[in-house]
Amino acid sequence: MAAGRKKKPVFRPRGNKPKRPPAPGEEQPIMRVKLPRQGELLGVVTGIMGGGRMLVICEDGKERMGRIPGKLKRRIWVREGDAVTIRPWEIEGDKKGDVIWRYHPNERKWLRDKGYLKVG
Fold first, then answer.
1. Which of 17, 31, 65, 83 is deepest in the core (most CB within 10 A)?
2. Is 7 inside any structural domain?
3. Residue 29 falls inside a structural domain
4. What pLDDT, in 10s, does the model give residues 39-65?
5. Distance CA 78, CA 73 (A)
6. Is residue 57 part of a domain?
């Protein structure tokens, strides 16, 4: 720094402290679970194919190739064993579909306990 120049103060916003993630044994509380609407199915991811595609076994017993739409690609991180909502395509609907939603582990447990999720 040049002599005689003051250092600019750094702006640090106060408040809005990031929440800590729950401890490994601690579960998150369930607020609301998004249920599938008309034309949507629940499923479990069985394999990752890459390129935003995955194999999903749906509640109707069919295995579909799920694709994450472009607007959700950076928001959704799906792993093998995750519960998802899938919307079958109009063409080749029994083989392919779009992944609409991914459920957290506590939401998946709730779906299983209430009888919504029967696969996986």
1. 83
2. no
3. no
4. 999 999 999 998 889 999 999 999 999
5. 10
6. yes
Long-range CB pairs of 10-19 (<8 Å, 24+ gap) are none
Task: Identify whether the C-beta of residue 40 lies closer than 8 Å to the C-beta of residue 85.
Answer: yes
* CATH classification at residue 109: 2.40.50.140
Token digits of residue 83:
């519960």
Q: What angle do CA 42, 66, 87 make, to 5 degrees?
A: 50
Give this prediction's pTM.
0.71
Going by C-beta distance under 8 Å and a sequence separation of 6 or more, which residues neighbour residue 16? none
Answer whether residue 70 is part of any domain.
Answer: yes
The vertex-81 CA angle with 61 and 68, nearest 5°, equals 80
Tally the domains of the chain: 1
